[in-house]
Every structure is written in structure tokens, then in C-alpha cells.
Write a structure and sequence with these properties.
Helix content is about 20%, strand content about 35%. The strands form 10 sheets. It has an 8-stranded mixed β-sheet with strand order 37-38-40-39-41-42-43-44, with helices on both faces. Strands 13, 14, 15, 18 and 19 form a 5-stranded antiparallel β-sheet that branches. The longest helix has 19 residues. The chain is globular and about 75 Å long.
Length: about 750
Amino acid sequence: MKEQFRLILIALLLCGASNPPAAAQSPSAAGKALTIEAIFAEGSINGRPPETIEWAPDNKKFSFIQYDDAGEHGQLWSVDAATGEKKLLLNESKLANLAPPVEKLKDEREVERLIRYHVAPYLWSPDSKFLLFVPKGQLWLYSIENGIGVEVGASPEAVGDPKFSPDGKHLAYVRKHNLYVRSPSGEAATQLTKDMDENRLNGEVDWVYAEELGVRSNYFWSPDSKEIVFLHMDETRVPTYPITDWMPTHPTVDVEKYPKAGDPNPVVRLGVIGASGGSPRWISLSNDMDLDTYIPRFGWVRDGVVWAEVLNRTQDKIDLYFVDMHTGRSRKVLAESVQNAWINVNDDLKILRSGDRFLWSSWRDGTTQLYLYSFDKANPLAADARLERQLTQGNFEMLGLEGVDDAAGVVYFSCNQDDPRQQQLFSVKLDGSELRRVSQESGTHRATFADDGKHYVDEFSTALTPPRFSSCSASGNCKEVWHSHAVDGYGLVAPTSLEFKASDGTTLYGKLLLPTAPAIKIPLIVNIYGGPAAQLVRDYWTEDWPGGSALYQQYLAQQGFAVFTLDNRGTPARDRKFMTAVFHQFGAIELQDQLTALDQLFAQYPQIDRSRVGIWGWSNGASMTLYAMTHSEIFKAGAAIAPVTDWHNYDSIYTERNNGLPNDKSSTSYTDLDLPKVANQLQGALLLAHGTGDDNVHFQNSIQMTEALIKAGKQFEFMVYPRKTHTIRGTEDRDHLFHMITQHFERELK
């Protein structure tokens, strides 16, 4: 009997060692507790960084808005690019009226739009003497010299996307789906386009172009300020999705134009119209353009000549056209196509000031690299563009064109040459010589360049170094402008960087956080995204969205969990073969990589308990969570936040880019990731959560999954967040959600 009691006592002690109480894990040596409330408070633990960085057209200074940590009190500052000296442009009282914090808006979808698409609340005038603000959709012109703001033509309807003409004499904007032009001095506005049908957008960006093609504006002034080229979108045939607000006594419904996979897309065409009015001149780009064509980017080569990119619906072919506006004639000057892959739309096309060359990026050699092309300056349509040289090459990804110093003949770009988990700033000369690294510290550097390419703002961070902003010369000499609060007291630990081998020998990168307290057997939580839109294993402070929050991973580790993250094949920042391994076959390969890496992880870390493994993710990560819990038995618990449960439910551009059209027999994604059909295969305890106002991954996805789970007799938890969009933003809602996720894993894995 005594021996039996001794064995029971030992067992209880071992259980206690493997599951230390949360209170023993959370406080750091300095006494600061990393809590969910601290992580998701406005400003988090590191403070609120500068927002809406904008370079003045004179290239001598840049500006930014600095709020306090709560996001309630802000000021607008400028920084001298040469000296790093800061100067107050607008104090708190003035800024509160001209650019109120987005958090004060009651419309969750509008807040999501402003934050997600980084919509700046102000812009500089071409002479760098004025700032234009758009509070509540009204135009206010603020004089830097005298500190006075003047409203420019009050309007009963909100205006959007205002732009000065290059000469500063006119101001264009979009109102009620039409283009207007007025003088900044306040004279009467001229309506340029006059569509009365709300399904027709002139110069305005719709949801799917903004979300999936990264379009931020659909009209542009000509260099001589006499004309505007714009995109006309006809959404008549695009289906709608109802977004219901259940909170009022009588619920309201907002109808969203949203083309799902296989649905009719917006019909698009380009037009040019004079700044003084008149009828638009419509541009014919090719004879084979049809309803399934995208125009993701366009602009001016010079006065009288427009360029435009045309992308086919399957997104495996993109053509570059030059158009002579005087004759209406167009010519395809460059064409790109890929097989068993897709074209990545980006902002890397840059017409150089010489007027006879442009930069272009391509995946053609297996990695994304920069190329230099030339054309006839006097007659751009005379011949195809001619490849001068490949400016960058190697076993790395060119992540984006950042700036060009035309005078010095130097191009600046971001890449991950030294480590796919980092992002560094590099430069190369237009003649292909002197490729060099500009940024110095290991980690992630994000550069915002002045138009002349002489200076840039550097945002730097690492996994344990919160953001720091500096004003830098193009040579890399930097002066700090802002740094985060110290986070030393929160007991943060560096994740262990790991490498694994996929079944085909491909190197996979992962990271692991172990609890600081000793334990014999540790429960494991896998944080997954797994899709082409996000890389989680990065040397970066945190993700821009909560689904990859590094601080929440730290919190879980302090509660006694091991936290593991792997970027499987199909995730970005690797070569074309790596990213397109999942082409037309979402689900199986991603899960295979995750399980293969887990086997290797268990072998390396025997203290991790393979009988207590959880998984969680957001958006695509939530889809992968559900897929993993219905296609494997290892996961004892999972949390899926805002998942796509059937690719028929998601938008046309993203879905078809990776998975093909629904009737494409070569694609298995529509059948393999029809998750409601495999609800009866669910293994483990599931927590499902979704916002009712999600205009990205519709609430419909979780409703369909719920119905299938009920019919399959599966017990699960489902949490609804009223009015919340895809990111379920707001401190109260996120505190609630992440406490629920944590408690779910505490209950099921401990």
C-alpha cells in the first residue's frame, strides 16, 4: 500500500513538473508580466510607432504622425533628411481635427480598409508648402507657413483618393464613383466623368483589386497636368454578398460586390480625359481582350504616351502595352508567361527619367530578379522593348524595388540574399556593376525612399528588437528618429532557428520557443499559416496581424507550452519552385511538410510530448488548422480563426491564381479543401471563431462548417464577434479571443 502511494505521489509530482502553473511562468525577473491585455493594448508593450510616413516632393524632408500609446493624442512631425532634425508641423489640437485617429471611426469595415491598405490621411502639395487632409471625406488645405487650414469646397458626399496635378494648379478626387477636378483655391469643381450607374466606377478602386492585386489608386495625372488616365470598372455582373449588422433592433444589410471563384469579374477598360472636361477617349489595348482580363497597373511613359499591364484571368500571362494617346494606337512591347505557376503582380515597373528605359522584375529564371529594358524615346511604339541586362541574379528573392537615383545611375531594392528569413536593402548600378548591401544589421529592414533616391527612412527590427526608425542617406549612414519602448523586463527569449528536410529534400525553415521553466514533458502548439500570402518564420519583431503575433507565442511559452512555427512549401520569400509546389493542390503538401517537420522536431527535442499537440491559425492558417484536424490524428486540439472552409467561397483573383478555375480538372484544391464534406473526420477539440462583418473571408464559411459539424455529430466550440471584420480588431475583442484560445489549449493539452 505504501509502495502504491509512493508511485502515485511520484506521478503527481511529474505531472506538476510538466505543467507548471501559469503564475510561475509569466512574471519576468524584472517583475513585468507579459499578459494578453498588454500584448493587444493600443501600442502593445513596445509603443506605437510612427505612422503614415510621407516624403515631401522637394526630397529634403519627410513627415509622419506620432500618436501616444493609446492612439488618442497625436502630432505631425517633419524630419530634415540631411540632419535628422525633427520639427513639429501640427500640434495635437490641429491634428485631431484634420486627421482624427481611425480608432474613433464607428464603421469597422472603413477602419479595416484604412489600416489594411495603409490609406494616408494627408499628402504634400507639389511645392512642399501645403498639406492636404481628408477628414471625414472633406478636403482641407493646411499652410505650413502660416499654420492655417482652409476647407476646399465642402461636399455633401465624401471624397476619396485626392491628388494634386504635377504643376499644383489642380486637385483631382473621386466622389460617388466619378472623377472631379477643382482648383486648390476653392473654385467650383468640374465633374469629369458622369456615370449615374452605381455599378460603374471611374478611377475608383473596388474591393477585389485592392485586396488581391494591391491596387491603391486607379487614376493618374499626365506629367504636363493636362490629362488624366483612369480605369473604368463595370461591376454590373459581379455578384453581391450581404453583410448583416445584427446589433440594431432592425438589422441592416450592406451589399458588397464580391466575385467568388468562377464568378464574373469587373469589366475594365482604360480612358483618358482632359483636366478641363470633355468626353473620355477609350483605349484599345488588344484585339483579344475579353471580360476575363485584369489591368493591375498603368501610368504615363511621358506626355501623350501611356503604359498598361494586362493580366489574363488564369494569371499565367502578363503583357505590357505602350499607347499613343494622339493616335489611339497601342503596341505590346513586352510579354511574360509561366507554366504550372502564376504571375506575381508588383510595383517594380519604373520608367526612368532618361525617358528611354524601364525596370521590370520577373520570375523567369526561377527566382524573382530585376531587369533593365530600353525603348525608342522618340517613338516608344516603334518596336518591342529591348532587354539591356539582368541587374540582379542569384539564389535569393528580390523582394521589391525601393528607389532609384537616376542622377547617379543606382537602383535600390530589398532582397534576402543572406538569409530567406531576413530582409536587407541592396543597391546595384544600372550598368549591372557594384552590387552591394546597404543595410548593415541582421534582421528586417523596410525602406521608404525619397523620389530622387538620395535618402530613405529605415524601419528595422528583429525577433527580439522592436521597431526602430532612422533617417538614412543612400550610402547607409543613418540617424535614429524613433525607437520603441524597452522590452527587456518581459522575459522574452529568442526563438531557436531550425532547419528541416521535406520529403523531396527541400530545406524548410522553422522556429521553436520552449518554456523557460524545466519540464519533463512539454505540450506543443503549432502556429500555422501555410499559404502564399504570409511568411511566419522571419527575423522580424511581429507580424502586422494577430495570426502571427510573436508576442502571443512568447506568452504561450511563458504559460508552459512549446510553440512551433514552420514555413512549408507554398509560402513566400523563396524561389518559384518552392512557392508553386502547391499550385492547384492546396492542402496535402502543406500538411505533409508540417508533419514531416514535426517528426524531426520530436526526434531533436524528446522533452516535447507528441501526445499533446495543438494547432492554431488565422485565415489561411485557420483553413490549414481544419485541414490538419480532419486529415491527421496527431492534433488533440485546434483553434481556427476566420477560415476559408471551401475555396468556392473565396474571391476570384486570389483563389484562381493558386488553384485555377473551379472547372479546371487539373486542380484538386476545390475538392480536397471542401472542409464541410470531411467534417465527420474531425479529430480533437475544435475552437472556431469568426467576425460577422468579415468582408474578406465571409462569415458564411464558418456557418457552413458549423452546419456540417452538427450533422456529423461533432462537438465543438464556436465564438461569434459581432460587426468585426477579418482581423477582429479592438482591444476588448482581441483580449476576449486570445484568452479563449489560451484557455482552450490549457484545458485540452494540460
